[in-house]
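User: Thanks for the earlier help. One more: Sarcosine oxidase. Can you show the sequence and predicted structure together?

Assistant: Of course, both are below.
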Amino acid sequence: MSTSAPPTGAEHVQQVAPVAAGAPEVAVVGAGIVGLSTAYALLERGVEVRVYEHGEPGNGQSGGVSRIFRHAHDDPRLVAAARASRAAYREWGERLGVEMVSPDGAVAIGPAVDDHLPLLQDAGVAARRLDADELARRVPLLTGFDGPAMCDEEGGSIRTTATVAALSAALGDRVVRDEVLAVRPLGGGPAGQRVEVRSGGRTDTYRRVVVCAGRGTPALARTLGLSLPVTQAAHVRLTFAVRGEAPGTLATLQDSSGVFGETGVYAAAAPGNASYGVGLSQTTPARDDASMPVPGGLDELATRARDYVARALPGLDPDPVDVRHCWVTTLPWSDDAMAVWEADGVLLPVGHNLYKQAPGLGRRLAAAADGEGLEDWLRPEARLGLPG
């Protein structure tokens, strides 16, 4: 495993391109959070971009009203990457006039605390243990718990809707509604490497292409002769209304304790703290063609999430007010693994739980697309996500 780590600072160019778009040099396929972040980071560098999205931006694997920002990972390199991403979220939010991450912190309970807290503190993250009283103040919806608990002070709920809207607005008409059918390297020429993108309504060539197409990335990779080791699955996340008045502080929650019947639970607040999105880390399998071998798998996961809420979060009404189903794409060596494949001017990032890493990853993808080269710690052979 590579021991190199990403810088923790936010190295980037301050310039942001004007609203009027010129001829695009780079194409980004997919307007989820990673694609939008990559495109915006290219504009920071003064590189014109076109983003292809056949649906609504942010409505695929990036969908929903909230996600968790956390620094905690098994791999110290991902902790460092999350620090850079948190700095980018803060900077972009200030620049675009939106709160991208709540200030309420990220709370974790259960045995994973003992594994993650030393890594966070060694990396300079403001994280500390919580006693039962402070835990109750941070997550007032939770029933009494006196086991291991910690708070990542700079974690919080990612304001997904506001973030996607702000980045989409900054990109303007650089985002085109069209489905990409094929990406084809054309080789070098007098002007250097060119890559063709064929979509439903056009054919264009670019200096570089970044494919951020979620579960569609492996199919486009195959046209480049790449076989990505991606496992497909589906996931469900339910949103529950808070009983009574919304709390002033509502941290995100990760529960690895098993005390309430589940060992992999996460929850994040919607803006205003009047509702809480809750999901299990478990998924139901899916085939490459998007069919599900267990038709009732999503319903089973939803039932388990409702049962968990009834046991662990009495501050929530146990009848969900919203549901979000989405695809999950994971690499074999870790649920948090991410890697970037590269072939003939095309970059293909793959991973799961990427929302928290998106701004930092976007900046690094933009740097690679702008000719600086892909950093070694992002390549598949680095096995990013393995415990340090």
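User: Great, one quick takeaway?

Assistant: The chain has two domains: 1-103+158-229+333-388, 106-153+231-330.
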